[in-house]
């Protein structure tokens, strides 16, 4: 009896062993190995605490996702020279040894996403992966990417960096990524899109930068993105974006810029003009000030006259301010407020309600307001004295503005029922049409109703 049960035990062990090696030789415990369509080792969702030691060297695909892995050793995959797909996502990897992927020069897809304790990537982690076309690094707790980390990845097409804590990206991080088509950077903490951050991305199709903390996009940031079709910058902290910045995006079709804090004054003018030429589709751009809630794209050019006094925003406004001595993220006094020579021509041509720029894209049902504003702006031309008065005023410009700029019906979409004279009053007494140095403001505001009457509005 004893012998028989011992024999049975051995047999059982043999059966278990055979089960763990379904096909071929040397399949690691807890894994399933198969050879069609390609030699594959599948070890996902096994609660593995570490990468199995005996992965067959001829493996082309290794699935290790959803285990409890904490580290990738330099020897973990070093003999699998034919590896093309490596999935390590949804583990608890906090350390990837230098050289962990060295020599895997056939690797095409590497997924390390959802290892939120990873935090650090070695600058040389991906060296030599010249065939890599997809790299997942999302939700890895990364706050920084080392300089040159993507160097040599000439075949990269899809790069997923979303849901990290990235604060910034070094210049030329993507210099070798001319083949990149998707760059996902959303849900990070990027504050400035710098001139050289996106350099080299000449093939980029989709750039997702939403849900960051972007306050500013430097002027040449999109210079190489002539193939970009999709740009998401929604839910950031943009107050302005110049038309010049957008100009290189000649292939753009889908644009989302909602959920920012747009300042709809003279600073928005070049963007507004860029939208006249833009043929794709875009989200709304809700103005934050001074025409709160209105869609920047749908404003009349006249409504962008003047310079909203951003210095007078309350401290929690969170933008547009810079203490003396501090380097501001953008020019504290907008350039458009300092250059008036070109403005005078715009102002004078604007007196004509049907100037070409306006009729090309007539926003519906706003004729009256725009005419009104045209009059006001002419009134507002000599703002020198007014400016001083506003700056000296103890009551903040914002309170003046918010009291007067949001009469019922003006805070949301602009409706035909909007009261033009309410808007006019707000602008002539508020700071949004503040002077521009050399321009002239008619001293007597009583003039306005007369003009309005003459135009048949009252
Ligand atoms: C790798 O692939 C090549 C060509 O397909 C093959 O000749 C070689 O034997 C493979 N190496 C291993 C270790 O399986
Ligand atoms: C992940 O690893 C860390 C140590 O690196 C440990 O504290 C944590 O509990 C682990 N999390 C899970 C879900 O296993
Ligand atoms: C894009 O990838 C292809 C194939 O992987 C490669 O031959 C080519 O050199 C890459 N292009 C650039 C600009 O690196
Ligand atoms: C920045 O943007 C976020 C999301 O759009 C918003 O919730 C937040 O209030 C903004 N911060 C400031 C300082 O404007
Ligand atoms: C403009 O005002 C005139 C007269 O006050 C009125 O008849 C017309 O409907 C108004 N147009 C719009 C678009 O509000
Ligand atoms: C603006 O007003 C001041 C004082 O009233 C005057 O000296 C100046 O010439 C005016 N500027 C323009 C451009 O009309």
TrEMBL record:
<keyword id="KW-0732">Signal</keyword>
<feature type="compositionally biased region" description="Polar residues">
    <location>
        <begin position="392"/>
        <end position="405"/>
    </location>
</feature>
<keyword id="KW-0325">Glycoprotein</keyword>
<dbReference type="GO" id="GO:0042995">
    <property type="term" value="C:cell projection"/>
</dbReference>
<feature type="region of interest" description="Disordered">
    <location>
        <begin position="346"/>
        <end position="427"/>
    </location>
</feature>
<feature type="compositionally biased region" description="Polar residues">
    <location>
        <begin position="346"/>
        <end position="360"/>
    </location>
</feature>
<dbReference type="Pfam" id="PF13855">
    <property type="entry name" value="LRR_8"/>
</dbReference>
<keyword id="KW-1003">Cell membrane</keyword>
<dbReference type="InterPro" id="IPR003591">
    <property type="entry name" value="Leu-rich_rpt_typical-subtyp"/>
</dbReference>
<dbReference type="InterPro" id="IPR032675">
    <property type="entry name" value="LRR_dom_sf"/>
</dbReference>
<keyword id="KW-0472">Membrane</keyword>
<dbReference type="GO" id="GO:0043204">
    <property type="term" value="C:perikaryon"/>
</dbReference>
<feature type="compositionally biased region" description="Basic and acidic residues">
    <location>
        <begin position="364"/>
        <end position="376"/>
    </location>
</feature>
<keyword id="KW-0433">Leucine-rich repeat</keyword>
<dbReference type="InterPro" id="IPR001611">
    <property type="entry name" value="Leu-rich_rpt"/>
</dbReference>
<comment type="similarity">
    <text>Belongs to the Nogo receptor family.</text>
</comment>
<dbReference type="GO" id="GO:0005615">
    <property type="term" value="C:extracellular space"/>
</dbReference>
<keyword id="KW-0449">Lipoprotein</keyword>
<dbReference type="GO" id="GO:0005886">
    <property type="term" value="C:plasma membrane"/>
</dbReference>
<dbReference type="GO" id="GO:0045121">
    <property type="term" value="C:membrane raft"/>
</dbReference>
<keyword id="KW-0677">Repeat</keyword>
<feature type="signal peptide">
    <location>
        <begin position="1"/>
        <end position="26"/>
    </location>
</feature>
<keyword id="KW-0675">Receptor</keyword>
<protein>
    <recommendedName>
        <fullName>Reticulon 4 receptor</fullName>
    </recommendedName>
</protein>
<dbReference type="InterPro" id="IPR050333">
    <property type="entry name" value="SLRP"/>
</dbReference>
<keyword id="KW-0966">Cell projection</keyword>
């Amino acid at each position: 009896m004893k012998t028989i049960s011992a024999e049975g035990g051995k047999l059982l062990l043999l059966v278990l062993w055979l089960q763990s090696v379904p096909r071929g030789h040397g399949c690691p415990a807890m894994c399933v190995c198969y050879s069609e369509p390609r030699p594959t080792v599948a070890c996902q969702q096994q609660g593995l605490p570490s990468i199995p030691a005996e992965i067959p060297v001829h493996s082309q695909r290794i699935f290790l996702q959803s285990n409890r892995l904490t580290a990738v050793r330099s020897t973990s995959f070093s003999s699998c020279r034919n590896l093309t797909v490596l999935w390590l996502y949804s583990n608890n990897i906090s350390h990837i040894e230098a050289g962990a992927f060295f020599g895997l020069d056939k690797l095409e897809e590497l997924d390390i996403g959802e290892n939120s304790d990873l935090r650090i990537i070695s600058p040389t982690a991906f060296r030599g992966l010249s065939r890599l076309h997809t790299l997942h690094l999302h939700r890895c707790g990364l706050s920084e990417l080392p300089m040159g980390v993507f160097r040599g990845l000439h075949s990269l097409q899809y790069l997923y960096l979303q849901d990290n804590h990235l604060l910034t990206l070094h210049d030329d991080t993507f210099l070798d990524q001319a083949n990149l088509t998707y760059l996902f950077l959303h849900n990070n903490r990027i504050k400035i899109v710098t001139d050289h951050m996106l350099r080299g991305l000449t093939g980029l199709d989709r750039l997702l930068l939403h849900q960051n903390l972007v306050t500013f996009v430097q002027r040449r940031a999109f210079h190489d993105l002539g193939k970009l079709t999709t740009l998401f910058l929604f839910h950031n902290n943009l107050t302005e974006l110049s038309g010049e910045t957008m100009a290189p995006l000649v292939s753009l079709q889908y644009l989302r810029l909602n959920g920012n804090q747009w300042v709809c004054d003279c600073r928005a003018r070049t963007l507004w003009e860029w939208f006249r030429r833009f043929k794709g589709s875009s989200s709304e751009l809700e103005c934050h000030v001074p025409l709160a809630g209105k869609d920047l794209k749908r404003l009349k050019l006249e409504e962008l006259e003047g310079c909203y006094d951003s210095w007078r925003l309350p401290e929690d406004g969170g933008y547009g301010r810079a203490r003396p001595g501090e380097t501001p993220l953008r020019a504290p006094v907008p350039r458009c407020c300092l250059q008036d020579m070109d403005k005078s021509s715009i102002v004078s041509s604007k007196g004509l309600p049907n100037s070409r720029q306006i009729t090309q894209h007539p926003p519906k049902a706003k004729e009256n307001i725009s005419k009104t504003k045209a009059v006001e702006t002419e009134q507002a031309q000599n703002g020198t004295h007014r400016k001083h008065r506003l700056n000296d005023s103890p009551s903040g410009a914002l309170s003046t503005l918010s009291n007067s700029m949001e009469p019922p019906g003006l805070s949301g979409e602009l409706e035909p029922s909007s009261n033009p004279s309410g808007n006019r009053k707000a602008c002539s007494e508020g700071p949004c049409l503040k002077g521009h140095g050399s321009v002239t403001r008619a001293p007597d505001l009583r003039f306005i109703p007369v003009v309005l009457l003459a135009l048949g509005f009252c």
